[in-house]
Amino acid sequence: MNPRITGAIAARVLTQLRRDHRTLAIMLVLPCLLISLLWWMFDDLPGDSFDRLGPALLAMFPFIVMFLVTSVTTLRERSGGTLERLLAMPMGKLDFLFGYALAFGIVAAVQSVAAVGISVGLLDLTIVGPVWLLTVVAVADAVLGSALGLFVSAFARTEFQAVQFMPALVIPQILLCGLFVPRDRLPDVLGSVSDVLPLSYAVDAMQHLTRSPATGEVWRDLAVVAAYAVAGLALGAATLRRQSP
Amino acid sequence: MNAVEVASLVVTRGKREVLHGLDFAIPTGQVTGLLGPSGCGKSTLMRTLVGVQAGVTGTVTVFGEPAGSPVLRPRIGYVTQAPSIYDDLSVTENLTFFARVLGVGRAEVARCVEAVDLVDHADDVVAKLSGGQRSRASLAVALLGSPSLLVLDEPTVGLDPVLREELWGTFHRLADDGVAVLVSSHVMDEAERCDRLLLMRDGVFIADGTPAEIKQQAGLAESADIEQAFLAIVRGDAA
Question: Any transmembrane segments, and where (chain A) (predicted)?
Fold first, then answer.
């Protein structure tokens, strides 16, 4: 790995994003609008539903958006020949992966600062734990989404196919992450499935932050999410072949 | 001196053998043309030299190292058939990015933009360029860092004749500086512009030599063209 090359890739990905105003809006503005929508839905209802659901949503946005954007952009690199060209150059596979992870990590940080800022500042989301830690969890989620997106892009031939992985890999995680039914009250089998899905830990971490000032549990969840992200990047590296048939 | 030396090269893609036992060399300081119809194995051969082709047996050495060895990566400039550059970046941004990956300076970027005559479009986003301009931008990336071997897969397809002339001029200038230039084409009329030709058909070479030698081998006069020589050799082989 070479910091110059990793940096070059991250800077290039960010320049491409800056050019693409619509994608940028989806990444940065849409999460803020959606979280506001959620707040509005529950505004006239009694109870603390927004406080219960809001944090889970903050964990999901970076994961979903980065999954989509990374799977499509890396697929473009694969099919457009730029990946082959880069692999014929003195670029390490890890440079490529970490360059992407770095760029999308930065975008995720901006995204979550905006979404968390609106949720806490404007919409009165109750956060008992440290607010900055929400952003750290969001960045880990984003890197996780990028890592999975990179991995699945190897199995898609078109952008259309890449997008189809989203319902297959992401929606089950949303259903089982504890948002609809608390994880400890799921049927045993589904509970065990939920225990091996990374998004469950991301949502757990966010929910701890809304309830308790203690951060021990959060760091433990964060470690699990980070481990999944690293495993995803390693799998992604295995799909980057210098030689292809 | 030879930049590339290949012995009994066989390439298999899936279950199909694409290249059937090739032996050849590519000298430095010359423009070598790899000519043959579409689908005859030109791109596979080029990918093998660059080291991105799987399923390779035989010996392929580039500057004395096995093809694909990491020390060779900065020394080879490779242009794939489709322009492999980023559509949403400008020409300069593309080159600046690849220059950083290669670790060459910014002066190289300006030099390479100039070498492919894109100075007027340097700040245009690639998506807005014409097909020919795009392939030139892709070529410019391959020129970064002055590689000693250039592998160019159909770089002149679809270009305006004036520009094609200029590009061939560029290739010969590079060759005069000692670069080994390998250019593929399925258009036989480009043959005369090469110092040496490898004529390929169905994964084997049917001729290897200067244009004049190949015509002589085919029993044709100097005034004949390579397409006639190609046909004569193929028919002679069949007879």
Answer: 24-42, 54-75, 96-120, 132-155, 162-181, 222-240
**DSSP secondary structure letter of residue A121:** I
The predicted structure's pLDDT at residue B187: 84
Cβ contacts of residue A70 below 8 Å, gap of 6+? A100, A104, A145, A146, A149, A150, A153
CA-based nearest distance B100→chain A, Å: 6
All residues at 6 or more sequence positions from B137 whose CB lies less than 8 Å from its CB, including other chains? B83, B85, B91, B94, B95, B116, B118, B126, B129
Chain A, nearest residue to B95 by Cα: A12
Provide the token pair at A211: 């309830």
Q: How far is CA B228 from CA B27, B206, B211, B223, in A?
A: 26, 13, 12, 10
Whether B84 and A4 lie within 8 Å, measured CB to CB: no
B2-84+147-235 under CATH 3.30.1360.40, yes or no = no
Between CA A134 and CA A172 the distance in angstroms is: 23
Residue B32 pLDDT greater than 90, yes or no: yes
Domain boundaries, chain B: 2-84+147-235
Residue B88 is nearest to which of A16, A81, A91, comparing CB atoms? A16
pTM above threshold 0.80: yes
Q: Which residue has the tokens 């009250």?
A: A185
Residue of B76, B78, B89 with shortest CB distance to A15: B89
- Which of B54, B83, B97 comes nearest A12 by C-beta? B97
The sign of the dihedral angle between the CA atoms of B129, A11, A31, A25 is: negative
ipTM above 0.90, yes or no: no
